[in-house]
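Q: What would this chain look like folded?
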Amino acid sequence: MSLLSYPFDFFHLFAGSGFFFLAISCLVIYFRKRHLRGLDLPWVYLSFFGFSQAAQEGLSMVADFAGETRFWMLARFVLSALSFLSLFEFFRRFRKRFPRGRYAGWIHLLLVVAVVAGCLVSSSWQERWIQLTFFMG
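A: My prediction, written as structure tokens:
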């Protein structure tokens, strides 16, 4: 058994690459925002989301290769929660910059609801990770 021997490994590779390119693009915009007018947004949060999702895809590929253990499930669960937290923070700050609704104050509550519901309903880390990923995605 080796890396990139199954078709699902290529899914993880291409999805992780897409998130990685998203993160790099956001970092470039973040460091060049002085020269780009109208793009004064919290790009670093979206960049962290991209990097953490890319790392999560890489961990999924390694976990498929090395065998699914509790450590891999916990690592992916925590990384997924942090990545969606940064995505929500990007959204919250975006909404503060362009105030047309009342979403900015309570957007983090969705993540807390997802984690608590996942812990109450499911019994394994794999089920919790899947529920969090599909609830937030």
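The mean pLDDT is 78.
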